[in-house]
Design brief:
globular; single chain; 1116 residues; Ubiquitin-like (UB roll); alpha+beta; 16-stranded antiparallel beta sheet; 19 helices
Length: 1116
């Protein structure tokens, strides 16, 4: 560099040692000169043009020169080679032709480009040109490599999803494996996965990460795992070493010796058993648990060693303990003279309460700590006046050595009586109602179904402080507790004063300036709390003044403030208004806005300072002084990590270049991107705010981490199948085992008769394969292509083809950037399972939906299709009673609304929802009014409403209520078509009945013959009680009662129309959320399946007494 510098400053008249200065050159042949002319020109350029220098030393050779051109170099064949991106990067560097080159500009340009996160390294290369006053600047960049895909192989014991939760290398992040930073990151990633395996018992596991180039700047990462052999315990050996105690050698009597600890207790304390996975952490925790267990039993400094042999897979525990303190707990209910009334309690029940197991010391000081903890524990159980006394005695040294017993620690507990809080009464409160004050407190009245209800003194004092804070937040700074001590009498500890009021005992508790009173009747085991309050005067805002910008802006801003003249004054509201003002100007791009807030009062002394945070006055005046600073606007916008997603999806909601930089808009844009559901991470970064001086034109970098977009989902399930004429159900052998028990029940309810076999419904098994693309065309649209097939028990060939469904759906959750969602579907279905008659339908559907306030969901849907019904196979109704209809066109317009306050859509435990559905239907059908087979178009209106309510009692019992009303209106005065009529009965309606078998009933409760199944009107309700059987296994039970009826119109319904059923059910919650259920419903009013014989009045066949039904999800 020194030589170069010297050459650039040498005098042009001095001969260069690199050039032959001989004059003989003029006498050579002219062709010789032409031949060597290029070389001569190169030598001249070398001498005249100073050498370029990478500027990292802060002393650039181009200092003071004018920049003529800026070039970005290093982006060949990568993303920044695009002219638009290259122009944005050059703009961000803030190096413009005509600027004078300085070291600060050099440093600033490199910092701005580096903060985008696109480059491993950024350097500048400055080249002065011939005239010596201008320079060309090159930005030398080394682009980052980006993770495009991460794959895991070799994992057999652990799920890939569990491994990917530990990933440091994720899609879209920068990773340069050849750099030192990249190598360190790769090592950390391997170590993170290795730790996961070691924790699961794979001590010999190996993890290796390899990278494969993809495109020009991408990497595919492969994580290869060799799990090795998993260490599991086959056997546990426990060895206990302790000194044998001579008979009769006991300092406190033969009954008070060191506890006898068995090998089983040691093993259980360490939580080590055969079959358990072993890791270093497992052995360490086992040792700690065993030591804690022994200390809790009174043993002094127990020695424990836990080891594991991989050769024989045996865990060995060696425990040595031979010195102890005997710990006793004596309990009595009421106060009595001396030690009378005490009964020995199992001290092991108090091990976790006492402090010995944690400290390992047993001196008098530690015994006192344990006494306090034991007394506090009793008070939390409702024994407010529990008294605990400790007796600590040490043995003689000779007895210690011979017996191992170093002493005895006895706790004498007098519980007195349980005190449940019956009432909490506030007095003197007029501004805030008692319910509002109670909502601020943790201390509550006793509630059988709730929690709490016992007095904890310290907790109640904290509650009183919360109540006072509530008042002060509303401007009542003088609020106090009426019977609290005066300022000079306040003490920093709890004081208790007792008194009497008639027969009632009074207990006044005070702490500093807090006070409450407890009242108790001697013949009651409940207490009453009284909290006298003095609210004091209200502090109000007088005048408010704003300054620092235009009057029109200040006037508009004044109307937005929550604290207005005459309102109650509150520092909390002032803080909120200050934040509102700052956010207002930040939305306009003033991110350096500063606020100075001062106050004044009428009674303020001259020269005193008014602090709005602590002021205590009846009238307070405020002044907000605003210093705006410069305005920042958006300039360049970059996107990172969007390998699939279109750039416009990321930038649609951002401020446009030239608009003010608004934090609110950035936060909303980030929130919207997260709500798309296609990114696992979203961040909008700013570039330019944190450089010195700040850049007024701020660049934005939208960084996203794309989730996997394409899925192939395979699912399957089963549910009970509709029993129709000709269906045989499950084979007779399956149901014969239930015949006898049901026959006995039937005899009791009616009259003795021969038991009939139970017809158990067949099961519909179905499988579904669905292809999903959640980021179709990079526009955050979802493409769904499901194929569903269902079959039943193959009694005959037709049973193999019960259900078929295929569709193609395109779902756009944010139509044209709005909050509306558009769903377009074409479909075809073949259904011989869920309907009384076979159906085939194909068509298309378009739906527009929107959610208001997160709870109210609306949907408008139009469906156009062709539908065909009948007996397609001919084996169900050989007599032709189920006619075959031709393909008929159908159009339906639906409007749906749902107000949903449920806590979980699949497994609700509390809340309610109300839904309604209104439809207009136009369908071709036979003109029944003309007694002909002419086809006409019928017009119908259908509507339906449903209410769901869930009540939760202590998270154990769930009471669920469901009410449904559905009706219809025929514009052409004809009944609903068969395919549109309401159905009742079965797993989704009335359990205890076969699918769709409930029909209209006459006044006697007998079925009315109707060639059309179902009805035009429906009423039904369900009450269900759900309770855990084995909650840890996600196994729940239920008791339910169903009632419902349907007919041709609402006026046709009567009391005998309603059918009832009750039953029990079992639910298994997959992953604790998705229920698989078995319900067994009992028909409470069995009736004839067909109209009775007119001559005898007897039924040929009764409805089944019970029907078991399987299914996924709940009935409602």
């Amino acid at each position: 560099m020194k030589t170069g510098a010297k050459n650039t400053t040498q005098n042009s008249s001095t001969p260069s040692p690199l050039i032959d200065s001989s004059t003989s050159l003029a006498y050579r042949h002219p062709m010789w000169a032409l031949r060597y002319l290029p070389h001569l020109l190169a030598l001249c350029a070398f001498l005249l043009v100073p050498p370029a220098q990478a500027q990292d030393d802060g002393q650039p050779l181009c200092k003071g020169l004018s920049i003529t051109k800026v070039i970005i170099d290093g982006c060949q064949k990568v993303w920044c080679n695009d002219p638009l991106q290259s122009a944005q990067l050059l703009s961000l560097a803030d190096l413009k032709p005509g600027d004078v080159w300085t070291a600060d500009q050099d440093k600033r340009a490199r910092a701005l480009l580096s903060k985008t996160g696109f480059f491993q390294e950024v350097k500048t290369l400055c080249t002065p040109i011939m005239n010596g006053t201008e320079a060309v600047v090159r930005l030398l960049v080394v682009p980052n490599l980006w993770v495009r895909r991460v794959s895991v192989s070799g994992n057999k014991a652990l799920y890939e999803s569990d491994i990917k939760k530990r990933l440091l290398l994720r899609n879209g992040m920068a990773f340069n494996p050849t750099t030192e930073t990249g190598k360190a990151l790769q090592a950390r990633q391997e170590e993170a996965i290795l730790r996961l395996y070691v924790r699961e018992g794979f001590d010999s596991a190996q993890v290796k990460i390899t990278t494969t180039p993809r495109d020009k700047d991408g990497l595919d990462i492969s994580i290869t795992i060799k799990e090795g052999r998993k260490a599991k315990i086959v056997e546990v050996n426990v060895e206990i070493s302790r000194r044998p105690v001579p008979v009769g050698d006991a300092p406190f009597g033969t009954e008070l010796r060191c506890p006898n600890i068995s090998r089983r207790q040691i093993r259980n304390a360490g939580k080590i058993s055969p079959g358990k996975v072993v890791t270093r952490r497992t052995l360490k925790l086992a040792k700690r648990r065993i030591r804690t267990f022994l200390r809790g039993r009174g043993f002094i400094d127990p020695k424990v060693k836990v080891s594991f042999s991989r050769q024989d897979s045996i865990a060995r525990i060696e425990a040595n303990f031979d010195r102890c303190y005997v710990i006793r707990v004596q309990v009595r209910d009421d106060t009595a003279p001396g030690v009378s009334g005490y009964a020995a309690a199992n001290s092991y029940n108090f091990t976790d309460i006492l402090s010995f197991q944690d400290s390992g010391t047993f001196d008098l000081q530690e015994a006192e700590v344990s006494r306090q903890k034991l007394e506090t524990w009793y008070q939390t159980q409702g024994y407010l006046f529990a008294n605990v006394r400790v007796d600590h005695r040490m043995a003689r040294k000779k007895a210690m050595r011979s017996s191992g017993v170093h002493g005895i620690i006895s706790f004498y507990v007098t519980r007195n009586y349980v005190n449940e809080i019956r009432e909490i009464r506030f007095t003197g409160n007029q501004i805030l109602k008692s319910d509002i004050l109670l909502s601020e407190m943790s201390t509550q009245r006793y509630d059988f179904f709730g929690s709490g209800g016992y007095l904890l003194v310290n907790q109640l004092f904290n509650d009183l402080d919360q109540v006072r804070g509530k008042y002060r937040g509303l401007g009542y700074f003088e609020m106090s507790y009426s019977s609290a001590k005066a300022t000079g009498e306040q003490k920093p500890f709890v004081r208790l004063e007792k008194g009497m009021d008639g027969q009632d005992e009074l207990f006044d508790f005070t702490y500093l300036d807090l006070h409450f009173r407890m009242r108790k009747h001697p013949q009651e085991s409940v207490i009453y709390l009284e909290i006298p309050i003095r609210e004091g005067r209200l502090s109000r805002l007088g005048e408010i003044e704003l300054s620092g910008t235009e009057n029109s802006v200040l006037a508009m801003l004044r109307t937005r403030l929550s604290l207005q003249p005459g309102n109650p004054f509150s520092p909390k509201l002032v803080t909120g208004d200050i934040g509102l003002i700052e956010r207002f100007f930040q939305e306009q791009g003033h991110h350096q806005v500063k606020m100075e807030t001062t106050c004044s009062t009428a009674d303020q002394e001259s020269g005193s300072v008014c602090d709005w945070r602590t002021v205590r006055s009846a009238l307070v005046n405020l002044k907000h002084t605003i210093t705006l600073g410069g305005q920042f606007v958006v300039s360049e916008i970059f996107t990172r990590g969007n390998f699939i997603t279109h750039r416009n999806m990321l930038t649609a909601d951002l401020p446009r270049p030239g608009e003010p930089l608004s934090r609110v808009k950035l936060a909303n844009a980030e929130k919207r991107l997260r709500n798309l559901g296609i990114f696992s991470g979203v961040q909008i970064q700013t570039v330019g705010l944190d450089v010195t001086p700040p850049r007024k034109q701020v660049a934005l970098v939208v960084v996203v981490e794309e989730r996997p977009a394409q899925f192939l989902e395979i699912s399957g399930g089963f549910e009970s199948l509709a029993i129709r004429e000709g269906d045989e159900g499950l084979p007779h052998e399956v149901s014969s085992s239930m015949v006898s028990s049901v026959g006995v029940m039937d005899s009791v309810l009616r009259s003795p008769k021969t038991a009939q076999p139970i017809n158990i419904p067949d099961l519909l098994m179905f499988a579904e394969v669905q292809y999903r693309h959640r980021n179709f065309l990079g526009r955050a649209m979802e493409l769904q292509f499901p194929i569903k097939y269902g079959f039943s028990t193959p009694v005959n060939t037709s049973a193999l083809h019960r259900l078929g469904h295929i569709s193609l759906t395109l779902y756009d959750p944010f139509l044209m950037g709005s909050s509306y969602a558009l769903e377009s579907t074409v479909f075809g279905r073949y259904d011989r399972a869920s309907k009384e008659e076979d159906e085939y339908e194909f068509g298309g559907q378009v739906a527009l939906s929107k959610t208001f306030l997160k709870r109210l969901k609306t949907r408008i849907q139009f469906t156009g299709s062709g539908i065909q019904s009948g007996d397609f196979t001919g084996d169900r109704n050989p007599d032709g009673s189920l006619p075959y209809t031709p393909l008929r066109p159908k159009m339906e317009l639906q409007f749906k609304t749902t107000l949903d306050f449920l806590d979980n859509p699949a497994n609700p435990t509390r809340g309610f929802s109300i839904s309604s559905d209104f439809s207009y239907i136009n369908i071709q059908q036979v003109d029944g009014s003309r007694q002909t087979s002419d086809e006409v178009f019928g017009n119908f209106l259908k509507w339906e409403s449903a209410l769901k309510v869930f009540l939760n009692f202590r998270r154990k019992l769930i009471l669920a209520l469901y009410v449904r009303y559905a009706d219809s209106l025929s514009i052409d005065e004809s009944s609903l078509p068969q395919v549109e009529r309401y159905r009742l009965g079965g797993i989704w309606g009335m359990r205890g009945f076969e699918d769709d078998t409930i029909g209209a009933m006459d006044q006697n409760g007998d079925p009315i013959f109707n060639p059309l199944a179902g009805g035009d009107t429906l009423l039904s309700s369900t009450v269900e009680l759900r309770f855990p059987i084995f909650s840890r296994l996600n196994l729940w039970g239920s008791l339910f009662f169903d009632v419902g009826a349907l007919d041709e119109s609402l006026g046709d319904l009567h009391t005998r129309s309603f059918r009832t059923a009750a039953g029990v059910g079992i639910r298994y919650l997959v992953f604790g959320q998705v229920p698989i259920r078995l319900d067994v419903g009992f028909n409470l009013d069995r009736r004839c399946t067909e109209a009775p014989d007119l001559s005898t009045g007897q039924c040929e066949e009764l409805e089944p007494l019970t029907v078991p039904q399987f299914g996924l999800l709940y009935t409602f």
